Amino acid sequence: MTYLLALADRAYSSWSLRGWLLFEKFDIPVTCRFGRLYTDAFPAMLADFSPARTVPALRTPTGTVIPDSLAIAEELHSRHPNAGLLPADPARRAVARALMAEMHTGFTALRNACPMNLRVAYGDFEPDDAVQRDLRRLEELWAWALETTGSDGPWLCGDYSAADAFFAPVAARVATYGLKIAPAAQSYVEAHLADTAFRRWRAMGLVDGADQPFYARDFVPVPWPGPAPLPARAVDGGTPENSTCPYSGKPVTHLLELDGRRFGFCNAFCRDKTVADAEAWPAFMNLYHS
Question: pTM of the entire structure?
């Protein structure tokens, strides 16, 4: 039996992103279950993770349910002490824990005014004073972490840690709403936007179900400020260079075209997540460069 992780819409659920990164970035095997927000599927999924009231919620291999992202991070560190979720150095580990705790409980104005939405970016959002205070606090915290831990960057406590996973949705909010922050803080945000795990999550979020009306805002859309994707496109027909899906190994049924070449996948989701950001997927890029 493996870990079982309950999550919600990739494009919108900031806490789901945190929970997923705790496994993806540290090579801990997990099976994910998704419940779409604002549908009956979400509470139906959570009914299997009692007493959880929201996501992420984790069921351990022995059946214990952990219904909180901070508790999940700490429990994973206890069970996998060499995975790197928290720094080995005690001083750096203390800083990482302080960062996680404040992110877990704070920044209410930023959360409320700028809900995570990985499908858009806006050019004319004007943050109010409360959001500005949260942004200044982020700048202060991140600068403190880099100085205290002696990290050369881009991550706050040396190597990527659970603290960085907790701040990944903040990077998404800065990107979506065009929030203005100090250059050093902006560099940290850009490191998240370029991180291949973050890019994989966003690529899946771009093609995973319809838009959620709750997150729509009447701001001017602009291009996403992260790395530009390769110009792949979905196509019908033709002969792909591969006979099995680079992810599942199953026979191909859906095709994309990139640079005049055609590649196959076992289903529409595998193809579409690759079209969304081909460079985020090492298995596809190995095929592309072969």
Answer: 0.97
